[in-house]
Design goal:
Layout: H1 5-13, E1 18-22, H2 26-34, E2 39-42, H3 46-49, H4 61-74, E3 79-83, H5 93-107, E4 111-113, H6 119-130, E5 135-140, H7 146-149, H8 159-175, E6 179-183, H9 187-196, E7 201-204, E8 212-215, H10 217-220, H11 237-253
Parallel strand pairs: 1-2, 1-8, 2-3, 3-4, 4-5, 5-6, 6-7, 7-8
Helix pairs in contact: 2-4, 4-5, 5-6, 6-8
The structure holds 3-methyl-2-oxobutanoic acid.
Length: 258
Amino acid sequence: MVRTVLTLQTYKQQHRKIVAVTAWDYLLAEILDQAGVDMILVGDSLGMVALGYETTLPVTLAEMIHHAKAVRRGVTSAFLVVDLPFLSYHISPEQALQNAGRMLKEAGVQAVKLEGGNPALVTTVGRLVQAGIPVMGHLGLLPQAVHRLGGYRQQGTTPDTAAQLLEQALALQEAGIFALLLEHIPAALARDLTQKLTIPTIGIGAGADCDGQILVTADLLGLTAHPPPFAPAYANLRAQITQAVAAYSQAVRGATLP
Ligand code: KIV
């Protein structure tokens, strides 16, 4: 079944949880899509898990388009979203519109995701939505703002910051986002936001009560050497790959390859 923004909104009304994951290449995307996930995000975390950068900040628009095109070729059913990378949407609403437009025209994704909720960003979101581009919001821990935040720390932990997050979430909803990703905030705050918003919330490190959950697939599969504490692994592929390569090496070196 092909997912659209309407499918995701209907899932919220039906209290059916949304399953979201990230992908960065064709092979992975094809496996994830066939496994029946609802949403695939070409997250700029690919800068860290696929390109070896220390943060997501160096990721370029060209890199995101390159990876999004590969993922697109593997996806037939899941709703496909791509991150706009750092500084590709902050300079002006026009810059954001041009770059988001390239994601839809060149990479064939269905939506873009932008981090943050300050008034300038809300204006930009409104501009994209008016142009017909579905936008997913992202609040809480904002990896593109890691230096301003002083690290990958939990957000919304005080009454003031929790109130600010609620205000930003409502402003983004008003501007037209179709869903909101909530990263590394207290579960009680995520539950409150989920109840107050009419759009679906997708959580990561935000408790079980969001309308859906997302994980970086490298963490989910146990490929990452140092996953964040809020990202559970459902397989241990790092160890399995190491074992498989050791067995292959032994076969090659012992000339016992079939
Ligand atoms: O870039 C990314 O992978 C994200 C995660 C929080 C899902 O935005």
